Amino acid sequence: xxxxxxxxxxxxxxxxxxxxxxxxxxxxxxxxxxxxxxxxxxxxxxxxxxxxxxxxxxxxxxxxxxxxxxxxxxxxxxxxxxxxxxxxxxxxxxxxxxxxxxxxxxxxxxxxxxxxxxxxxxxxxxxxxxxxxxxxxxxxxxxxxxxxxxxxxxxxxxxxxxxxxxxxxxxxxxxxxxxxxxxxxxxxxxxxxxxxxxxxxxxxxxxxxxxxxxxxxxxxxxxxxxxxxxxxxxxxxxxxxxxxxxxxxxxxxxxxxxxxxxxxxxxxxxxxxxxxxxxxxxxxxxxxxxxxxxxxxxxxxxxxxxxxxxxxxxxxxxxxxxxxxxxxxxxxxxxxxxxxxxxxxxxxxxxxxxxxxxxxxxxxxxxxxxxxxxxxxxxxxxxxxxxxxxxxxxxxxxxxxxxxxxxxxxxxxxxxxxxxxxxxxxxxxxxxxxxxxxxxxxxxxxxxxxxxxxxxxxxxxxxxxxxxxxxxxxxxxxxxxxxxxxxxxxxxxxxxxxxxxxxxxxxxxxxxxxxxxxxxxxxxxxxxxxxxxxxxxxxxxxxxxxxxxxxxxxxxxxxxxxxxxxxxxxxxxxxxxxxxxxxxxxxxxxxxxxxxxxxxxxxxxxxxxxxxxxxxxxxxxxxxxxxxxxxxxxxxxxxxxxxxxxxxxxxxxxxxxxxxxx
Length: 662
What we know:
662 residues; alpha/beta; Rossmann fold; Helicase, Ruva Protein, domain 3; 7-stranded mixed β-sheet; 45% helix
């Protein structure tokens, strides 16, 4: 029978993915960097690398029998149990502790030990995932899909290095310091900013495109699976060298010096990149020191800072990545600015020595002016804020596009919402508000165990119900005007630009989408309800405009689709009406009355609605779009004057997510 250890692929045998391996090693040397967030597709070796690192690292000394892996050499971090009595010391191998997306809060934080409560009648803690993770690696796959309550727990532990447990009469705190490794696919949604900011390094990983590398991956995997013991022996020398390098780097890390010039360079890079806050600066500093230690150098240089900036800032910004060349350019710009300012300062000092006191007053003024430049990249930022907003940033002033605010809405989007059914992930338990069949057995038994001895005696007051959550996804029906009220190639391009942007947005948030176009005498379904609208890209590209404007027909077809979604109860129905507000074909009573009647039905059926005007037309004193928004109880936006409305519409949807209420 093979030992489990021998089934772990050697870290030194992993092909490619240098940034992943480097970031993991640096965090192993210096956990205070703050972990690493790896963005990319599945199947690129992320989990293999994390497990291989844990297997490579030396064992840790722990207090024997301590469920929290307390460090016997750090008295300040010992738990109450370890402080209260003498203890033995043992060595443990570092572990990879996984935090699954479906974990309950009790499982993560810890809860009452049911067995001890029944046998001994005592209230003792059953350690959770955060206890197991102390001084180990905490691995969260698809961390961007983690429920908000678990993100809050992670934030607290990451901020203080302590997990506080207050459950069923238990109040306890224990150390929880871990190397956090999270993975995510950005197409499935962004990570909550508070947690993203806490993670030190942000890198991306892609499938290897070099043919030789791909062949080598297959060959090594095949060799490993045929004889893992022999394969590990083959790479043992490289493993030992890496381990020695890590241990040596840990030993000399505190001796690595960083001069003020390097600190100023780091600050300038962060300001130039538009970084918010100071955590990124500190992460770059710590990473640069760790790189120097790993390279057996006692002082941080420009190359260390450049390499650290790439690992910390390369993937830190939403919708913007920076490759090695871009980071190198920013570092060079910062270096050049520093050198120029030094020359100016040197020249200024020379003038002070040679000129008279009256001239020195003028020189001092110049020096102060130069010093003002040196202090402040912030002055540059303020100036930039006063400049006109580019077309890509038009959504920054999204509230200016909002012409009418509708009534308060149910929460449309978000990472999760409370489930009203028995569907969704079981997050935690609560006292039942009414008769519920969705009983939380574990929480009920724990509550009963507090007053039971031997056989559990469950009473009515012990009953707990499950609190479930599910992703708040929407089924979006885009009703778009493709009539010829303004026939032009420009209109067709604007329609395609908006639809492309909406499709990308729904893909990222895992929403459903259907596209209904109206022109001529009726409406047509361009894209049927789907989660994979990108597969209909060729249909979008072939859209043509022309003909009359049967707005009511388009709204009616969209409403029929969304009413079906409303009955299922799994997706929130949401209609986006893209029109210039000039209907000229009706169904029964006339173009305008028919459209307003359907808008009223949208409100009655609780279908969330926004109206977006994207074409310039003469209104003749009447704003039909405003009337549609009022009748449907929705919001009205006007993007007709924007050069690139697609970007703005995507930000309108984001605004709707952030400003809808539960």
